[in-house]
Amino acid sequence: xxxxxxxxxxxxxxxxxxxxxxxxxxxxxxxxxxxxxxxxxxxxxxxxxxxxxxxxxxxxxxxxxxxxxxxxxxxxxxxxxxxxxxxxxxxxxxxxxxxxxxxxxxxxxxxxxxxxxxxxxxxxxxxxxxxxxxxxxxxxxxxxxxxxxxxxxxxxxxxxxxxxxxxxxxxxxxxxxxxxxxxxxxxxxxxxxxxxxxxxxxxxxxxxxxxxxxxxxxxxxxxxxxxxxxxxxxxxxxxxxxxxxxxxxxxxxxxxxxxxxxxxxxxxxxxxxxxxxxxxxxxxxxxxxxxxxxxxxxxxxxxxxxxxxxxxxxxxxxxxxxxxxxxxxxxxxxxxxxxxxxxxxxxxxxxxxxxxxxxxxxxxxxxxxxxxxxxxxxxxxxxxxxxxx
Length: 389
What we know:
The protein is α/β, with parallel strands linked by helices. It is built from 19 helices and 7 strands.
């Protein structure tokens, strides 16, 4: 565990140095930690930043390690170039056709990194108004974007030259406490030029915190969102008190306070307290999208226990069934038949193998770990009940 702890500490230090240009901790044999730092960095989508510090500071001598580090940097730069091109293509299509739109998350944050490639993104997120969604999707598809998913709770996924674009008609997360604010995103939008809008800066950071809480509830949000927040704070991008006020309205005051404290620990040298230490353990092991035991424990908590989780798999609420079975949007009366079909698929149909595997995993979960995660959620006062508006 000591090596893992040291690797996590060194990873954060190297990431910070990539942003600030400071010197990393001295007297460390980075070759010895290289593989674990890169593995953990990839897990949190910041390996290219650690690699940049190691290469630029000439801390690697092993030829294979140098080659590996350079590859992380090249891939991040290439991905950034492709993402920029895809985003601009989508923006041009919307401008030509008069569709109001808003780029979300990483597309804006990367402007505040020393270089845009340093802020890696797996996909691009664009929001359009709900009444424009069908037309916007059709315009993208008629211009070379390929549908890669069915409509889900708030978006669809499209591919363009192997780059993923998520087209949103909502930024809600199906969590009532935060959706009460997120559903009003266009009320906090400012027109920039042409058809493009941007979230008000304070609302943008609130949205960032709310999205972090959503991933945290699902098993982990990774190191990168904390880095994003720190970089935006260094740039005086937002008003802390106004973001705090928005978080209070969405019942995120305790979570926001813990996020700020952990940012101070990781990037400003503050000391851990009980909450931030437990939070750190959960985040570091969870990675960018949540380690499976974290996912499973969080899902069990949100469903109210193992038995209720099994029941929820077979009988999701109507709002979820409408996404899984779009026919319900036209004929809600078919809901009982959809449930029967779903149970058939989960027991003896094509999905039975995966369903049985998931049931075994749920049954075999560590009850003590579930209690620990539940206690952490309670400390952070997070809304563990599903159900957005």
